[in-house]
User: Fold this.
Amino acid sequence: MQVPHNTAQLPLLGIIGFGAFARLMAHHLGAHFRIRAYDPALPAGSMEGLPAVEITDMASAARCPIVVLATPVSALKDVLADIAPHLGAGTLVLDVGSVKVIPAEIMARGLPSDVDIVATHPLFGPQSARDGLAGLKIAVCPIRGRRGLRVAAFLRRALGLDVIVTTPQAHDRDAAVVQGLTHLIAKVLVKMEPLPTRMTTRSFDLIMQAVGMVRYDAPAVFQAIERSNPYAAAVRNRFFTLAAALDLELEDHAAKAGTTALQASMADRAREDVNHNDAGDDQTQAEKGRPIQALLEPYPAHS
Assistant:
């Protein structure tokens, strides 16, 4: 990111909450804005590695003409009550949360009527944006005012994002599947660790890459995706119902096939093996060193 020498000419942008995603955001917006960020966990002053960012108090951040809320959904109502007295008429307020219906309603009720509101959801995080933002997706939901399409145009042209203009309801319906299931499956797989790392398929490797993208998300992100999305519970219930039906189908098929005692014993042994780490390569060094011609030699005849 190149920060212009004459930063005094850049417009001000305030960020409330300065965690990992807000820092990613500031890194890419620093070429376009002077940024005032507030986070109660950070001391006031400059931010190392982010020359465009000044850590300041809440009032100073809220007085900027554009304010981005990067706080958990659970804290949003209280944050709005704190910043509302400092917002000027015509301020543009955006959020970057993982769900949109509830935050949109909270912002519409809690912000002054002369404030424009655009709810956004960047469909990426620090892990998936390591190589840049170009081509990554972001949902934009205009809530109040006429600047939603301007926000979309800026994100598309200045940052190279793939912008999806939608409604909070349409967003949450899709996100309940896209994010809800991804994070749910990832949580289950993490709890099943250790998992195989050597003898894997490409499809399994891709699943584990997806797990790695969300493994270290803050707990508040998972809670928002699963609890604050009004459509998430129905998606979870359908997933669990279908999984249970598939389990019963497999058990019924095994019963009808007449599982033998040997099959049952092998199944028990396999279940025990799941709880152990990958045993590694069983070949001895001597076996590894045999010339390939030895594989073609016939076994000696039995005496």
Remarks:
- Residues 232-257 form the longest helix (26 residues).
- The chain has a mean pLDDT of 90.
